[in-house]
Amino acid sequence: MTFSMAHIKTGGTTKGNRDSISKRLGVKVYGGAKVRPGSIIVRQRGTKFDSGIGTKLARDFSIYAVKSGIVSFKRQEGNTVVEVRQ
Fold this sequence. Notes:
With 86 residues, the protein is mostly beta strands. It has a domain at 26-85: CATH 2.40.50.100. Helices cover 0% and strands 37% of the residues. It is built from no helices and eight strands. It is rod-shaped.
């Protein structure tokens, strides 16, 4: 006499079906916009944009304003430079 047990296959977790949380990188304030000191202008990995007059490069390569003014982007020696002008 054989007994058959009720059996339901459970849906196991799928490997490789995960994704990392996006880091929200990119330009946060565009050219011509006003900024105050401490405002983040660009979030980036590495130096896609270089910091110029009125800006500083943070440890995580973000560029932020160190003075109030208007943001401008310009090409200089093959690089894009971010500046804050009065």
